[in-house]
Amino acid sequence: MSEKNIKPVHVVGGGMAGSEAAWQIAEAGVPVVLHEMRPIRKTDAHETESLAELVCSNSFRSDDAMNNAVGLLHEEMRRLGSIIMSAGDANKLPAGGALAVDRHAFSGEVTRRLEAHPLVEIQREEIAGLPPEDWDSVILATGPLTSPALAEAVGQLSGEEYLAFFDAIAPIVHKDSIDFDKAWFQSRYDKVGPEGDGADYINCALTREGYDAFISDLIEGDKADFKEWESSTPYFEACLPIEVMAERGPETLRFGPMKPVGLSNPRSEERPHAVVQLRQDNALGTLYNIVGFQTKLKYGEQVRIFRTIPGLENAEFARLGGLHRNTFINSPRLLDGLMRMKSAPRLRFAGQITGVEGYVESAATGLLAGRFAAAERLGGMAVPPPVTTAHGALLSHITGGADARTFQPMNVNFGLFPPMEKVEGKKIKKKERKPAMAQRALDDLAGWIGRSSAAAAG
User: Distance between CA atoms of 276 and 265, rounded to whole angstroms?
Assistant: First the structure.
């Protein structure tokens, strides 16, 4: 099939995800039109008209492929021909074990390479509302600052509420870091839920003294500042930060997310004064979110304060809490396994709008969306990566592995991967688990690259 006879794929949004998606499509031999509204319409966060502009930090975080999940994602992207990783490596700055980049040189290089690609057409325009019906393959990669008209249109199409207010995110803890000599499983009043057994929550009890100290820490803890453009967006009353609830009165949390009623601590004869509950957050049962603990506390303060909770003294966090303006869809409910909207399959989503956090995670979803769209355009079959890879684990999480009822943005982490206890029949020591999972991921990625290439070719 001649390139001239292939209809283009349309990518809306020229950030990290959109730029990566466009590159992957073009490199597969499929024409692509990349629509970016800047500088025609500016945002409150961007300063330039460059593609893949870094609006916050200049760090892609850890580059350790064998011990850190984001470093593993870096390596997988390199092996998949990522323009984001290639430009990042070409413009990196000294940052120890992290990959930090010269932000202007980085985005400038991404822009130049896309502008120079013969199969990429860049159109500077806002797509106000849903893309035209004759665009039969579209990737929406418009990020957390999606234009209001497009956000409203997609919201109406999906029937789901867009979260364009301060989304308050509760911390998520690795289950294997919880001390079960202090914590216990129990549902309130031992109630059996739709898919539960009456012991669906992990519970951590606080004494009166412990509770009073905890409330004091919450109120006095160092909070992150709002950006100027965030300050006009009100809190979502049903999802208030825990420190705001604490400021409303010392007993507020005991009658809210920390109420002790219906719970009995088998570890002590003393009745709990307050209880912190953790709820399973992924299908694998490796991650638990702290119920009702959305917060604007700074990250260091969160770790310090939340580790004062009995049972969480050595807690390892897959995600810390946060509060910021964001726009994202309920991907586990709305998207299929190939990132298509179930109710409108011509539309794919990629980047932060899908509910991933971080530059690299956004780009990785763009990479997958681009590959899937290109495979379909060429008459082949799109094949999702194995869930044992960083790409596959992230994809699985946002398209079904996460609980749709509590879905919130997430970084890649090893808690999203299938557990790995043994290698060749031998039990793996805890310190060797991450390298073993990383090696499994890279081995499985190599097999997927071969299979997906064959499937895409028809």
Answer: 12
d(CA 205, CA 365): 39
Establish how many alpha carbons lie within 13 A of residue 92's alpha carbon, considering only the half-sphere containing its beta carbon. Answer: 17
**Which architecture does CATH list for 3-164+327-456?**
3-Layer(bba) Sandwich (3.50)
Q: What is the pLDDT of residues 266-288, one digit of tens each?
A: 988 899 999 999 988 887 889 99
Give the end-to-end CA distance of the chain in Å, rounded to a whole number.
12
Architecture of domain 168-322 in this structure: Beta Barrel (2.40)
pLDDT in tens, 358-405: 899 999 999 999 999 999 999 999 999 999 999 999 999 999 999 888
Q: Whole-number mean pLDDT of the chain?
A: 87
Alpha helix ranges (H) inside 328-429? 331-334, 359-377, 390-396
Q: How many beta carbons lie within 10 A of that of residue 303, not counting itself?
A: 15
* Domain residue ranges in the chain: 3-164+327-456, 168-322
Here the tokens at position 196 are 């539960």
Give the distance from CA 336 to its chain's centroid.
17
Q: In what order do the strands lie in the sheet with 98-101?
A: 59-62, 98-101, 92-93
Please report the pLDDT score of residue 443 as a whole number. Answer: 97
Tell if the pTM clears 0.85, that is, is over it.
Answer: no
